Recover the amino acids of this structure.
C-alpha cells in the first residue's frame, strides 16, 4: 500500500479517514497533532519547569521526546519522574529504559519507590488474597498519583505531563458512565480538573488527541521502544475489559473512538459548568500525611492503612 | 512463516493483513505487523511464505 500524499510505502492505514501514510507523513502528522494540543490548551504557557511522569511505556516516552523538542528552544526545564511500584520482572526493565532515554536526551531523572515512600511494594500487596483486597490497579493508581504529585511539588515542578492518550480518555468516559460517576468526567480534560489548590501540581495531557495505536507506532518508528511489556496484574482491572470492548467496536465500526471522544468533549464542557464551584471538591490537608484531599484523610492513607491491617492478620 | 509475539503459528494463509488478524482473533487496534522486517498496513497482502511478525504493542490497564 502507498502513502496517500507521496506514494512512498505506507506504514499505517487510517480507516476512519480512509488514508494511508508513509513513515515521514505519519510522524509529521502525529507531532503536529500533539503540538496543536499543547498550543490550543496552553499546556506549557506560563510554566518554567515542567515534569513528565515517565513510566517507561510508549506513551510517556513519546511525551518526554516531543516535550523535549518543544521546550529546549524555549529554555524551559524538563524533569522526568519515574515511580518504582515494585513489580519484579516488569517495572525494572521499564526503569532501565527510562534512564537510558533521559541520559540520551540530557534530562534530569528522579526515581522514587513505593517501598521507600510507603513501605510496601505492589508485589507484596498482590500476595494478599484477592477476595480480601481491592484490585491491584486501585492501589497502584492511587499511590502513584499521590507520589508523583508529592515529588513534583518537592522538585518545584509547575505542571506534570502524563501519557494519557485518546483511548484512555474514551475508556475513562465509558467507565464513569458505567459507574454513574459523572462528576469524575468533569476533571478529565487536557489540563487537570475543576479544582485548584496549591498542593496539587497541575496535570497536562499532550497525547489527548492521539490513538493508542498511533502512539505505539510513533515510538517504534522513532526507535524509542523496541520491546513491549504487559503488567502482570493488568487483567484484574475493569479498564482492561472496557478497552477490549472498545477495540472490538473500533475494528467493526472504524471511527467509534473518535466519535466517543467528540461526545466526551461536548459532555465535559457541560459537566464542568455543572460541578464548578459547587463545593463538591472542598480541599483540606490529610490528617495523616498532610497532602491535599477532599476528605479528612486522603485515599492513599485510607488504602495503605487497610493494606497494613490485612498483612498483619496473615 | 507467521509469528505472533515470538511464537510460531502453523497456518496456511494468503491475503490481507486485516483478514489474517481476523482469522487469528486478534484486534488490529493492539498490534503492529511486520512483513519481512518492514512495518505494513492492515490492507497490505501477506502470505505464510513471508516472515509475518505480529507484535502486541497495546497493553495497560
Amino acid at each position: 500500500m502507498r502513502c496517500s500524499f507521496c506514494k512512498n510505502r505506507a506504514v499505517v492505514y487510517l480507516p476512519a479517514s480512509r488514508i494511508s501514510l508513509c513513515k515521514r507523513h505519519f510522524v509529521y502528522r502525529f507531532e503536529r497533532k500533539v503540538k496543536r494540543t499543547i498550543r490550543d490548551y496552553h499546556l506549557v504557557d506560563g510554566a518554567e519547569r515542567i515534569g513528565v511522569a515517565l513510566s517507561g511505556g510508549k506513551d510517556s516516552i513519546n511525551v518526554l521526546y516531543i516535550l523535549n523538542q518543544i521546550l529546549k528552544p524555549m529554555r524551559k526545564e524538563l524533569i522526568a519522574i519515574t515511580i518504582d511500584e515494585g513489580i519484579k520482572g516488569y517495572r525494572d526493565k521499564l526503569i532501565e529504559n527510562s534512564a537510558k532515554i533521559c541520559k540520551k536526551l540530557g534530562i534530569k531523572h528522579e526515581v522514587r519507590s513505593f517501598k521507600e515512600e510507603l513501605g510496601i511494594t505492589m508485589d507484596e500487596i498482590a500476595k494478599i488474597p484477592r477476595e480480601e483486597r481491592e484490585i491491584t490497579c486501585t492501589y497502584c493508581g492511587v499511590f502513584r498519583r499521590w507520589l508523583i504529585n508529592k515529588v513534583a511539588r518537592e522538585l518545584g515542578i509547575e505542571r506534570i505531563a502524563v501519557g494519557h492518550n485518546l483511548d484512555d480518555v474514551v475508556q475513562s468516559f465509558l467507565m464513569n458512565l458505567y459507574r454513574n460517576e459523572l462528576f469524575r468526567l468533569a476533571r478529565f480534560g487536557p489540563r487537570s480538573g475543576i479544582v485548584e489548590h496549591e498542593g496539587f501540581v497541575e496535570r497536562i495531557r499532550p497525547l489527548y488527541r492521539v490513538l493508542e495505536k498511533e502512539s505505539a507506532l510513533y515510538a517504534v518508528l522513532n526507535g524509542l521502544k523496541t520491546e513491549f511489556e504487559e503488567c502482570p496484574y493488568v487483567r484484574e482491572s475493569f479498564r482492561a475489559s472496557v478497552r477490549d470492548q472498545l477495540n472490538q467496536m473500533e475494528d467493526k465500526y472504524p471511527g467509534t473512538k473518535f466519535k466517543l471522544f467528540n461526545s466526551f468533549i461536548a459532555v465535559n464542557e457541560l459537566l464542568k459548568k455543572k460541578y464548578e464551584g459547587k463545593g463538591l471538591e472542598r480541599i483540606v490537608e490529610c490528617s495523616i500525611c498532610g497532602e491535599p484531599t477532599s476528605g479528612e484523610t486522603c485515599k492513599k492513607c485510607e488504602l495503605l492503612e487497610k493494606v497494613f491491617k490485612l498483612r498483619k492478620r496473615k | 512463516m507467521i509469528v505472533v509475539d515470538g511464537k510460531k503459528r502453523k497456518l496456511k494463509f494468503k491475503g490481507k493483513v486485516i483478514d489474517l488478524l481476523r482469522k487469528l482473533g486478534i484486534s488490529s487496534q493492539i498490534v503492529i505487523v511486520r512483513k519481512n522486517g518492514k512495518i505494513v498496513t492492515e490492507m497490505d497482502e501477506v502470505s505464510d511464505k513471508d516472515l509475518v511478525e505480529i507484535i502486541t504493542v497495546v497493553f495497560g490497564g
